[in-house]
Write a structure and sequence with these properties.
Layout lengths: L2 E5 L6 E2 L1 H15 L9 H14 L8 H13 L14 H19 L3 H18 L1 H6 L2 E2 L3 H6 L4 E5 L4 H12 L8 E2 L6 H11 L4 E6 L2 H8 L7 E6 L6 H8 L4 E4 L1 H8 L1
Parallel strand pairs: 1-4, 1-6, 4-5, 6-7, 7-8
Antiparallel strand pairs: 2-3
Length: about 270
């Protein structure tokens, strides 16, 4: 029957960190305008640099907004509205994000749906006003565009990015159109449930799932129904050395390099 690849998008196909960080700063200025009164270009550049370091903790795009504000509160004591900031470091964010996130959201009076809507709206406005610059703030990882274009495998995209953004980037950067029914984006439900749907539809295929988030792969391992999937951690994506070392100790997960992936997909 052939091979089927379910691919994460950000951190596997596309290095979107530049765009998502810039969009998060734009959205944060809309959400918390007073916060940015004292923010000059030097401080903004520092935030954007730090965003690349903390990017591995992001599961869904709206979290970028929270990270922008948290970094500003860490750097500028007078902005602080959160009790967790005292003594917090970038390493601390990487280690403790899952416990920090609900605390800061409560202390700032934020909710997930509102931030998701705002983040999507800011991106849509940027795309409408200047598509070229929006596209240019993203980049495909080397070789991935050709691998997708010439792949003889069946390819699905399974991402927490909103479908319209993944679709636009595939078309503009890779020259690839993936049918909409093969793009499972934000709102499609947990990735483990998406994989179950895909395998039901494609019985007899050799199944491969490639992610850059170790936590997601560990969730798949917990589901006996998904035992038939070959699991890969992309070591070029948004993960840490510590996570890559942990993955190497899990027999079910294969660590993959970018060149190996492009070769596999072709």
């Amino acid at each position: 029957m052939g091979d089927l690849y379910a691919l994460d998008f950000d951190g596997v196909i596309c290095d979107s960190c530049g765009e998502s960080s810039l969009s998060a700063v734009k959205a944060a200025k809309v959400r918390w305008p007073a916060l940015f009164n004292g923010v000059d270009s030097t401080l903004e550049s520092w935030v954007l640099d730090q965003m690349r370091i903390v990017r591995p903790v992001v599961e869904t795009g709206y979290e970028n907004l929270l990270l922008v504000r948290l970094l500003l509160e860490m750097r500028v004591p007078s902005m602080r509205k959160s009790s967790v900031v005292e003594g917090l470091t970038v390493e601390g964010i990487l280690e403790r994000w899952s416990e920090l996130k609900p605390v800061i959201m409560e202390q700032w009076g934020e909710n997930r749906d509102g931030l998701i809507d705002l983040f999507g709206k800011v991106r849509d406005e940027w795309m409408d006003q200047d598509l070229e610059t929006w596209i240019g703030a993203n980049r495909l990882y080397p070789g991935v565009g050709d691998a997708l274009k010439f792949s003889s495998s069946t390819v699905y995209i399974v991402t927490t990015k909103q479908n319209r953004f993944a679709d636009a980037l595939l078309r503009e950067l890779a020259g690839v159109t993936i049918p909409p029914e093969r793009i499972f984006g934000l709102g499609s439900g947990p990735k483990v449930e998406v994989l179950k749907q895909i395998q039901k539809k494609h019985q007899g295929y050799k199944l491969h799932f490639l992610e850059d988030r170790l936590a997601t792969l560990k969730n798949v391992i917990k589901e006996p129904e998904l035992d038939g999937w070959n699991l890969y951690l992309g070591d070029w994506g948004y993960n840490t050395q510590k996570e890559r070392e942990e993955a190497a100790r899990i027999s079910r997960i294969q660590s993959l390099q970018l060149s190996d992936f492009s070769e596999k997909l072709k």
